[in-house]
Write a structure and sequence with these properties.
CATH superfamily of the largest domain: Metallo-dependent phosphatases
Number of strands: 20
Radius of gyration: 22 Å
Distance between the termini: 54 Å
Number of helices: 18
Helix content: 25-40%
Shape: globular
Largest sheet: 8 strands, mixed
Strand order of the largest sheet: 2-6-7-8-11-13-12-16
């Protein structure tokens, strides 16, 4: 057969936002809710500086500046030692020994989480209007990974942190991502840790040793423009916006919960000193939420995050005596949620990396079956079909073959349903024919398929090629498929909602809820 007809389930309504009374369509409801169909662009460009430098990950200068992750993987990762020196410096300056920030929230409060924010271009600023609307009444926000691309430079904080969030009236805390470490975390420590001074130089390594080669190739921090940083700080200078954290990893006691933030460095692991602190701060009956630079469940796989000296971060999260109810990680630039059964209790593992950087594909995620989580339990944004349609347009433009490569949103949904053997995620008004061309393009773009079927050939979208192609294919017009979280805490439960930001006016005015879950605390 040349094609198959696939129809969908009846339409479903989305969830409302706390600040409005009407119900907004999400991408699960309508094509317009996903941001397609040439909708009216939002007002986010009014927030942007007059001149925006577009970050290209295909630029050799950018790749060379961001080389430290590769160098660390070849010649040894110095992140743990450098982190220990930062922590010791903060302790000497009077930071609390337990690294716990004690806030005065009542038993009911709300906070925001947004990950991988700092590219400083359209896709980051497109998040801001909806973020400000959905965050009304929240006590603070947390950035989960990669505050500042490409290398965490001090000079970039003005356009990539202070300016975008200048109108958010509450404090912002952060855990660093790998890009924040590309200049040895110096800028991050200055902005978030009470203007921490630079570290003293380390002794020169023995010639021709691995450490010597690493030092030879290492990207060093560039001198900061102090006037530029001072001007940037004025954008978030109100007393209610100020926050000082005790180091790159920390805990926040707020109302009935403890939020634990860890620093996974360049390579997605933590050092022994931080591991001992994590085990200590995780003790006690208080419900806990982990925020980490590297997610523990992502793309249908389990990444428990090794601790130097033995054990993993997920061992700590799973231990019943620690009472973790959720683990939220950045690094991957989309939204995913895995409600994992851990010895009879559910821990919500969340990926929240859609806060502003280029979009990582979701159509490459296989049919989910991991940690007792099935496809019916799993949630992601963008939807796989929208991701496939988005990437088909990118490849079509890059290869100058738009007529061949472009797949419509409806065709994307239909071929995903066919390949994974799942119902359509979004209803179609009319049945859609899945043609040979659509199947071919879906295969070439790395679309996942049922485990019992293997593709003969596909472009390496998810693996090595994603590191080069998808960052280099950032778009500067909607839909962007960005996202952020709002968590509403009561003594009984945490209500977690994933809001979408497409760059279109409709989603600015009323940010749609793409996923929602209530997490019991008792």
């Amino acid at each position: 057969m040349a094609g198959a007809l696939i129809a969908g389930p009846p339409p479903r309504r989305g969830h409302g936002v706390v600040t409005v009374h009407r119900v907004s369509d999400s991408s699960r409801d309508t094509v317009e809710g996903a941001g397609w169909n040439a909708a009216e662009r939002g007002t986010y460009r009014e927030l942007m500086p007059a001149r925006v430098e577009k970050l290209s990950w295909l630029n050799p200068r950018t790749l060379w500046a961001a080389r430290n992750g590769v160098v660390a993987s070849w010649f040894g990762d110095p992140t743990g030692r450098t982190r220990s020196r930062w922590v010791a410096q903060r302790a000497a300056a009077g930071a609390p020994a337990d690294k716990v920030i004690r806030r005065t929230e009542a038993d009911r409060f709300s906070f925001m989480v947004v990950g991988d924010t700092g590219e400083g271009d359209d896709s980051q600023y497109a998040v801001v209007p909806g973020f400000l609307k959905a965050s009304e009444g929240t006590s603070f926000a947390v950035i989960a990974s990669d505050v500042n691309y490409p290398v965490g430079s001090t000079d970039d904080y003005g356009t990539k942190f202070f300016r975008p969030y200048r109108d958010y009236p509450a404090p912002i805390y952060a855990v660093p991502g790998n890009h924040d470490w590309y200049e040895d975390l110096g800028a991050f420590m200055r902005v978030f840790c009470d203007d921490a001074p630079p570290l003293a130089p380390e002794p020169r390594p023995r010639p021709l040793s691995r450490a010597w080669w690493r030092a030879l190739l290492w990207h060093r921090p560039r001198p900061a423009d102090e006037r530029r940083l001072a001007d940037a700080r004025k954008l978030r200078s109100a007393p209610g916006q100020q926050a000082v954290q005790p180091g790159p990893y920390w805990a926040i006691d707020a109302g009935p919960v403890r939020i634990v933030g860890i620093d996974t460095g360049l390579l997605g692991t933590i050092d022994a000193e931080q591991g001992a602190w994590l085990r200590e701060v995780s003790q006690g009956p208080r419900p806990k939420i982990l925020v980490t630079g590297s997610p523990l469940y992502v793309d249908g796989e389990h990444h428990p995050c090794a601790i130097e000296g033995g054990g993993t971060v997920d061992d700590v999260v799973r231990a019943p005596e620690h009472h973790y109810v959720a683990a939220i990680g950045g690094d991957i630039h989309n939204y995913q949620r895995y409600p994992v059964d851990v010895d009879g209790r559910t821990v919500q593992y969340v990926v929240s990396g859609g806060g502003g950087a280029f979009m990582h594909a979701t159509h490459t995620i296989p049919r989910v079956s991991i940690g007792n989580v099935t496809e019916s339990d799993f949630r992601c944004y963008p939807l796989r079909g929208d991701s496939l349609a988005f990437y088909s347009r990118l490849y079509g433009r890059r290869l100058r073959m738009p007529r061949l490569f472009t797949i419509s949103e409806a065709e994307g949904m239909a071929v995903i349903a066919e390949r994974l053997g799942i119902p359509l995620t979004r209803a179609q008004s009319d049945p859609v024919r899945v043609t040979r061309r659509v199947r071919l393009i879906a295969s070439l773009l790395g679309t996942a398929r049922r485990p019992d079927r293997r593709a003969r050939f596909r472009l390496p979208v998810r693996k090595l090629y994603t590191r080069l192609f998808s960052p280099g294919s950032a778009t500067y017009s909607p839909p962007f498929f960005k996202s952020f979280l709002r968590l509403d805490v009561t003594p009984e439960a945490v209500r977690l909602r994933c809001f979408a930001a497409t760059g279109n006016l409709a989603q600015e005015i009323d940010p749609p809820v793409e996923d929602e879950v209530t997490i019991p605390l008792r």
